[in-house]
Structures are given as C-alpha cells and as structure tokens.
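Action item from last meeting closed. Structure (422 res):
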C-alpha cells in the first residue's frame, strides 16, 4: 500500500476520500444544523493539514448515511462548515458530486483551499462502483488519496474505482489503521489476548474463530456470552440467546478444544429482572441465570480475571462491551476491562462503536495505543478478508491523471469482490 510520502502532491489537485459520515444535531425551533460528533473529521485532520502544508488543492469527498433521493438532511453542508472551523481554510461546498460546475470549482482552487463535494452517495453509481462515476471523479484531480478506512471494505466508485485511475496513496489515518490491525495478525507481542463482547454470536463468529487460531486467549463477555454458556449446558434465564447463536457458539467451542486455545467465559454474572437502574439485581456465584432474570454484566470475579489476563498480555484487541454499560449498575465489567486496557504495558487496540464510546465516557481513549475508526472494515480485515479500498492503493493507477487521459482505462475498471486473503 503506497504511503503519502511516495506521492507528489505539491500544488496538485488532490481527490481526498475521507469518512465524514458524522451525526448532526439542531434543525428544530430555528436552531442551526451542526455536527454533533466530529471525531471522524478530526481523525483525518492530520492528512488534510499535511496536504495543505504542501500546497495541495483539496477536493474532499465523503458520504453521509444512505440517501434514497438526495435528501437535504444528508447534505455535506454542516460537514463543510465544521471542516472550515477546524482547519481555518477557505472551504467551499460544491453544488453536486460531479458535473461542469464542480469541475470549474476544482480547476480554480488555489493552494490550501478545500472543495467539499456533495454526498457522494447522492450518485447511484457510487455503491455500484460505476466506471463512469469513477472517471468523472478522477477528472476533478491529479492524484488520489484515500483516508477513509471505515469504507475500505466497500468496492465503491470513490474508494476503489477512482484509485485505479489516478496516482494514489493512503492517507495518514488509513496508514495507521492498516499498520495497527495487520500488526495484530502478523507480528503480535505475546501473549495475544482478544476481548470480545457485544450482542450476537452470529455477527462475530468469524472473528471468534479467527482469534482462536491467532490469539493465546479469547475472553468472551457481553450478551454474546450467553449462547456459549447455553452450549455448555448452563441456564441463561431470559437473557438473549437465539438457537442460531447457540449453534455457532457450540462450533466455536469445538474448534477451541481442537486447537487447544483458551476460550474463556464468565464464571459469575450480574443479573436483574429488567434493564433498569432501579431494577432488583444481584451477582450470581455461577454462570447460570435464574429463570425470568436477565444477565446484564459479567461479575466481579470474571472482570478481575479478565483484567489480570489483559495486564499480563503483550498485545490486546478489544471489541464489544462486557455488559449493558450504558446503564450504570451494569457498567462494572466494561469499566474494569477498559481500566486494565489503559493500564497495561501491552500494545492495545480497540475497535467498535460501543467500545470507543465506553473508552471515551471513562476518559481512557487516549490511553489506548490505537482506537480503530473502522467498524465493519476493522472486523473484516481481522477476519482475513480483502479490503477493496486498500487493495486498490496497492494496485496503483493504470493511467496518469491528466485530463482526457482516462477514457481508455474504463473497460479495465471493474468492481472488486471480497475474498479471503492468502
């Protein structure tokens, strides 16, 4: 994968793909619509500023949500406003994604200026990796930089197609993400401990099985622990536990036994009659949940055991909370795991929206070596799947980015399917 250091951007028009799919707030009772959480914008500020420092003229492209008919509430306008505030640059919002007016604006950018294109998913060809849309995007720039790791698992026109038409490189965020995550797969300091929580086993069974081959220990918590406990014959009460999840858990337990890897489950639980801070609750002295009760967190003994494993690790990957941490009485397990992660001398990587939220609420986000912004891309890379957006940066451009030199490449540009890495 080409790094930004290997791409000449000085004075050039740079098509920068970023992941600026941010939530908004306001818009009622006369309030201005504004960005509610600018974490994803801030994640790419390093790349934006580096390009500006080299006199690049930036054409910034991203998506927001899943538009059906160019809904105004999914416009990039509030994002453009926030980029202007954070960078101090001259920032213009284009009236569309492509077209003559957009080309004119891109052509007349001066060094350091930023043109934010409208929501790239306003164009139906984006998610289809339409070669014509990729060509039109390539016409707006001389070189291409992809900093949107969160969309790298999608073979879209702005993430995969255009990368094959222009000289290209990874942005700094993309570079950090790939380096941190491939480090877990290829050269982790041992012991490697994977802490996996969240809801459905079927959503993460491939990740569990992958870590059963890679990790020295896999620690299971959260709602996904109940299908594993049920597969071992424990009672789960009213806890969420689908038959499909139990079947997947049983399969994973068999593989763990075959590979002699450690798959660890809760030994005690915090249970309640309902998910409420006011509900009656108690800690069990076994992994069994009484009839009619819900398991809502791992217990103190389990949390302490998981914490010790993290503290003794060489590398730790954490994805998914240990319980219903958003409700105070059931945040113990997640808090102890987060504190252990922040306090260990191991290399630490965390990913997943709820995991990042928990770290942020506890003020521990900066204590983790790498907090992944990737979501689905993070999980797919760790599962061993190919990421089209990353592969395209490795394949490189087939033609120079000069205006008019692209047409002959279009027959060669096809969407890339996801397959397993060798």
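Sequence:
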């Amino acid at each position: 994968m080409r790094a930004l250091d290997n791409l000449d951007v000085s004075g050039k028009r740079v098509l920068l793909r970023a992941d600026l799919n941010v939530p908004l707030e306001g818009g009622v009772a006369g309030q201005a619509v504004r960005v509610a959480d600018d974490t994803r914008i801030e994640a790419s500020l390093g790349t934006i500023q580096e390009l500006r420092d080299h006199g690049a003229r930036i054409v910034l492209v991203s998506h927001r949500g899943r538009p059906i008919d160019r809904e105004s509430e999914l416009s990039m306008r509030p994002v453009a406003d926030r980029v202007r505030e954070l960078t101090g640059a001259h920032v213009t919002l284009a009236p569309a994604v492509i077209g003559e007016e957009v080309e004119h604006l891109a052509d007349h950018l001066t060094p350091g200026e930023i043109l934010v294109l409208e929501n790239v998913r306003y164009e139906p060809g984006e998610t289809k990796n339409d070669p014509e849309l990729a060509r039109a995007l390539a016409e707006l720039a001389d070189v291409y930089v992809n900093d949107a790791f969160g969309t790298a698992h999608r073979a879209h026109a702005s993430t995969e197609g255009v990368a094959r038409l222009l000289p290209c490189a990874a942005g700094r965020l993309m570079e950090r993400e790939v380096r941190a995550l491939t480090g877990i797969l290829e050269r982790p300091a041992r012991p490697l401990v994977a802490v996996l929580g969240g809801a459905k086993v079927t959503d993460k069974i491939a990740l569990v099985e992958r870590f059963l081959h890679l990790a020295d220990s896999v620690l299971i918590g959260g709602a996904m622990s109940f299908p594993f406990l049920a597969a071992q014959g424990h009672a789960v009460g009213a806890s969420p536990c689908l038959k499909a999840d139990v079947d997947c858990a049983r399969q994973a337990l068999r593989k763990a036994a075959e590979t002699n890897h450690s798959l660890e489950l809760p030994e005690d639980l915090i249970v309640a009659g309902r998910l409420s801070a006011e509900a009656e609750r108690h800690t069990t002295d076994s992994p069994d949940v009484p009839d009619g009760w819900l398991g809502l967190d791992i217990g103190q003994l389990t949390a302490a055991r998981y914490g010790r494993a993290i503290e003794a690790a060489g590398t730790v990957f954490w994805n998914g909370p240990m319980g219903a941490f958003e409700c105070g009485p059931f945040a113990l397990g997640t808090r102890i795991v987060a504190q252990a992660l922040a306090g260990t001398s191991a290399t630490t990587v965390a990913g997943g929206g709820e995991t990042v939220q928990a770290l942020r609420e506890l003020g521990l986000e900066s204590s983790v070596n790498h907090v992944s912004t990737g979501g689905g891309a993070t999980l797919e890379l760790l599962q061993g799947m190919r990421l089209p957006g990353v592969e395209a940066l490795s394949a490189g451009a087939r033609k120079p980015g000069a205006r008019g030199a692209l047409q002959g490449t279009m027959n060669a540009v096809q969407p890339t399917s996801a397959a397993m890495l060798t």
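Note appended to the action item: The CA atoms of residues 77 and 93 lie 6 Å apart.
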